[in-house]
């Protein structure tokens, strides 16, 4: 009978260790699921920022073209004014 008690005690110890291991596995699994959800959320936000960046790039390109045209017009206007002043002093 003593051998059976020792044997049952070893089995109970092993079952306790097994239960602890299962608990740790469940915790790790929860952490992995939470980490995966966080990564998914960050990927979604990154995709949104990428779309916003593309929109800003197109707006900047349009504004750059507009500024280029306006700058040329201003320089032509300044050149015309300087030319008119120089012509006025010539007479």
Shape: rod-shaped
Which regions contain 5 or more consecutive residues with pLDDT less than 50? none
Assign a percent range to the helix content. Answer: over 70%
What summary fits the major beta sheet? Answer: none
The number of helical runs is 1
Instruction: Give the integer mean of the pLDDT values.
Output: 93
Count of distinct strands: 0
Oligomer: single chain
Rg, please?
39 Å
Q: Structural class of the secondary elements?
A: mainly alpha
Order of helices and strands: H
Strand content: under 5%
CA(first)-CA(last) distance: 133 Å
Describe the structure in your own words.
- The chain is mainly α and 91 residues long.
- 98% of the residues lie in helices and 0% in strands.
- It has one helix and no strands.
SSE blueprint and pairings:
Blueprint: H1 2-90
Summarize the structure.
The protein is an all-alpha fold and 91 residues long.
Name some characteristics of this structure.
98% helix, rod-shaped
